[in-house]
Amino acid sequence: ALAGAPPRQFWANPPGGEPPPAERVFELALRQLERVDAVLERLALLWGNTEVIFDTLLQKSEHIEKFLEFVQEPQLLDRFNQRLAEYKKFWVDVHAVSRATLQKQSSPRARPGP
Prior knowledge:
The chain is an all-alpha fold. It is built from two helices and no strands.
């Protein structure tokens, strides 16, 4: 390269033409790897959220099991019903997040193009 001239990037097209076949294959492979990386990133986020959901579910289940022992007492029955309503809301929220995730993944814009 000439002194002071910007270095030529090996993936840049030559003046007035298509890149050599090896560079074109490299560009296509790089695009595909970027798409795979984006999908894996979304999946990692999904599984991370799923882990949090299951941890929360386990805690709520254990909490409700403890309350079941004491539902004979009216005061505790009220608290049990409150916890049960929270449990129901939790599942409604899980359903909404799952549905939104599925809709986002199945939308045409979410699918990688050719």
